Structures are given as structure tokens and as C-alpha cells.
Amino acid sequence: MNCPSRNDDTDRHPHWNQNPPALTADLTTRADLNGIANTRELDGAEHSNQSDKEQDKSPRDAAISRAERPAGAEQEQEKEPGRKAFTLSSAPQEDPHGKTSFTHFAAQCTRRLREILTKYSRFIGPGFLIAVAYIDPGNYATDVNAGAATRFAHLFIVLMSNLFAIFLQTLCIRLGSVTGLNLAENCRKHLPRWLVIILYIFSESAIIATDIAEVIGSAIALNLLLHIPLIAGCAITLVDVFVILIFYRPNGSMLHIRIFEYFVMALVLGVVVCFCIQLSYIQNTSVGQVFRGYLPSAEVVRGNGVYLSCGILGATVMPHSIFLGSGVVQSRLRQFDVNAGTVDAPTAADDSKSLDEKYRPSIAAIKSCLHYSVVELAFSLFTFALFINSAILITAGAWLYNNSEAAEADLFGIHNLLSTTIAPIAGTLFALALLLSGTSAGIVCTIAGQMVSEGMLNWSVRPWLRRLLTRSISIVPSVIVAGAVGRQGLNDALTASQVALSVILPFVTAPLIYFTCRSHIMTVITAPSENDAREGETGSAGVNMRNGWIVTIFAVLIWLVLVVMNVALLVLVGLGKA
């Protein structure tokens, strides 16, 4: 009986088979009672029925059925829209050894991994900018003092500080991505004016304390390498302002931003290379001794250990890095929305817009960029920042522990001890790493100071003048301190600046935790869906991205640890024990 499934005009399709074999049930009217439309609707059911029939057949009958099927049937089925070619999915299963399916799976994994790495490479940069804040010259003074006093015991504080930094910086990225504003701008938008002024005083004090470390460290490095006087070295550090004026434009093109980021990355990698060479000179120290330092120890709180611990904490989780982390992620988000055609490209006029008029990322940009930004940040901090801080302390602990000269040595003395104890090249590498760290950290500190002043005070002056003023506010006290204390007091000034940063840190992190826990701040406004539009609902929907309960609990616990350590520090200082 002739019962073709395609009973329309066959003049234009002479290759259609009008008498298919009886075993091809999917091509007969018994499986397709109403043409191809029914097959599209019942494709799943048809496939299950066909699979049941194939299971009832013996392997020999199934092979004969496949052999009797017309040669063009499978090709025609692939050409028809709406049909699924089951032969493609079942092909890898025909290999008895599974080599075809494994190769297919491996190719898919390789392609997916390549796509992820390609996308991740576009996010490399902001994490290095933030990591620079954790390897400034203040870290050299505190880490060297800790290594010389307790050898490797304070590596636990270094590790804990980096974990705290990663957690807090993740909150910064979430805040900057969801609101489109940095922490300083969120303070001005959501907090009363009197509280903003208090926070600005604390924040600007932190910027000044940070810049003291950058200026002093760079001046000492220039003096060690080129024998430049300290006061002249402090003045030379103003050069980084011109670097920022030329390259860094927050609302400029991605090309300028990437060039600036690569410049800072080169400085960071230079520091890493210097300390890799330093570590290669260490002798008579086992790996087990070093790694035991990452475990908790009573030495971190015994005697002067609390003072050193707070110095490391302040030098690692620096207040200005909190503002920086919330303000360097918007460029990738905006680039995503510009490519999607939802917003216009950034212009110079964006600087004069109010907070309500500024760019706010779309939910698509946030979902596409947030996880990559967090991973890039965590990788940069946990590898480069943790490595450099650990390398400084390990070098000091290996060569300067139980050394009476190292106990009271400043950065000049550390340079001399490394040159005489290890080799002259070791002292030179130490000074070079100090210079690179001071230069990169000074640039990043200027950016953070700009964010603080612009965000909290809303200055209405030209960008270049605003950057010059914010840099001057922090560098003038630094030059005065460097000139007043002289060479003998520079190391004490460095350590004291890091302790001051630790005291200020709870005041800066409290607004960050508060903002990221509030639904009305961390809600992304989205356009109404098509169904809502049909039903006449014109209101905007929202996606709540505030912290969950677990994240909130961890944030509060970290904040309490910071408060307790600083209270203990102030008590010890008041009693004269630190």
C-alpha cells in the first residue's frame, strides 16, 4: 500500500521516496497523521515510541532496519526545520570503546575553557591596581620588623589580612557594580551631611598616612640607589601626578585605561621578580619552618606582637583600597552596555553629572562582569599581594632574626644588612623593589584620594586641577614629616602610619558593610517584561543583590575583629607596652 507521509506536490521534489520501507514508521501516515506539523509537536513522544520499538528489536533486526532506510532520508530530516537529528547525538555512543564520546567531550571542555580564559583576560587590570595598595613601602617596615622580632610567626597575620582584604574587596566590587558609584559617592548619596564630613576627615587622614609611607619609601629608595637627598626625593614623587593626568581617565576610552593598568602591572611584576631573586638566596631554612608560620601562634599577641599585628593589618587592609576597589570596576560594566547599545559612550561631560544622573549598570552587565571581576581580584590579591608580603617577612625572618642590629634597624639598616649578610645585589634588589612599590602605590593612592574628595565633597573644578589638589593635600604633610623627623625617624614614621591606618580602618569599612546589606541600595532596576507590558503594568521591576545572611555575619565578625585588635592596641600604647 502506498501511504506517503509527504503527500503534496512531488514534481519539484523527485527525490522524495513515495514507497518507504515498512520499518520506517516515522515516515508513514501511522506516525504522522497530519503532515509534518504533527511531527513537530509530538517529536518527543515519537522519539520515545521509536526508541521503545528499537529496544524490542534484536541487534540484527536493527542493523537490517538501518540498512534498508533510504540514503536521503536522514539528510532530508536534517534539512527540515523543527526536526531533531537523533543520529548525531547517538553517533558517539556507537563506539564500543567510548573514544568518540570522550573526544567530543574533551573538545567541548577545551572550547569552553578557551572562551572563559579569553573573557577573563579582558578583566585583568583592576585587581592589580587594588593589589598595589597591599604592597606599599609601609608593608616593608612592618613586615621587616615582624620578621626580625618573631621570625615567621606573623605570616599567620599576613594570611589573615589578605583573606580579610579579599572578602572586603568583594563587597566593594558588589557595591560599585550594582550602584555604579564608588563608596565615597554612596556615602554622599545615602548618609547625612554631618556624618559624611566625619567620614571624609577619617578618609583623608588615611590617605595622608598612606601617602606618608609612599613618599618616604620612594625617597629612601632613591637615596639608596642614586644618593638623592630625602627632601628632593619626596619632591620627585610628584611625577606620578603627571602620569595619572596623561593616562588615567575614568570616563575615557578603554584603551587609555588599559594602558594605565598595564603600566601598573609592569611595576608589580618588577617587585615580584626582585623578591623571587631575594628568596633564592635564603639558606638553612626549610619549607616546613616557613609554612608553619601560617598557623596561629601565641607570638602574634605576646609582648610587642599586637603592635606589629595591627601594623601588618593596617598595611594590608588599607582604608584607601576600599574606596579604590569600589571605583575601578565601572569601566568594564559600561563597556559592556556600550557594546550592547543600551548606553552612550562616556564623555567628559559625565564628570559634571549629579549622582542620580550618573551611569548605572544594567542587570545584564552585572551578571556578565561581576563574577569575573571578583575572580580576577581574588587571584591578584592571593598570589601577588600575598606573595610579596610573605616574601618580605620571610627574607627578614631568615636573615635578620635574632640579629641585634636588625631589631632596631630602619630601611637603611635593612639595606646594609642584606648587602653584607647575603650579597650586595640583595640590597640593590631590596631598594629597587621599594622604589617600584612606592611609585605604583603613590599613583594608586592619588586615584583613591581623588575618589574620596570628589565623591564626598562634590568639587566642581576641572579634573586636572582637582587631581593636583587632592595629591597636594596628601603630599605636603608627607614632605613636612620627612623633613622634620630626618633619617633617624623615618622608620618609626612608617610603622606609625600603618598603625594609624589600622585604627581608621573600622570607620571606613562600616559604611561598606551597611550599604551592601541594604535592599534599597543594592537593588538593580530592570525594565518591565513583555507580559507586564501587555497587562498594562508600567512599573519597573528590581533584582535584589544585597548580602545574604551568611555574608552579613562574616562581614560583621571581620569588622569586630578589626575593632577588638585596635582597642587592644590603643590600650597597650596607653600603658606604654607597645
TrEMBL record:
Keywords: Membrane, Transmembrane, Transmembrane helix. It holds the Pfam family Nramp. GO terms for biological process: intracellular manganese ion homeostasis; iron ion transmembrane transport. The chain crosses the membrane at residues 120-140, 152-173, 194-222, 228-248, 260-282, 306-329, 377-401, 421-447, 468-486, 498-517, 549-575. Residues 1-14, 40-60, 66-83 have a biased composition (Basic and acidic residues). It is a multi-pass membrane protein. Its main location: membrane. GO terms for molecular function: cadmium ion transmembrane transporter activity; manganese ion transmembrane transporter activity. Signal peptide: none annotated. One of its GO terms (cellular component) is plasma membrane. Residues 1-102 are annotated as: Disordered. It is found in: Membrane. HAMAP family: NRAMP. This is Manganese transporter pdt1.
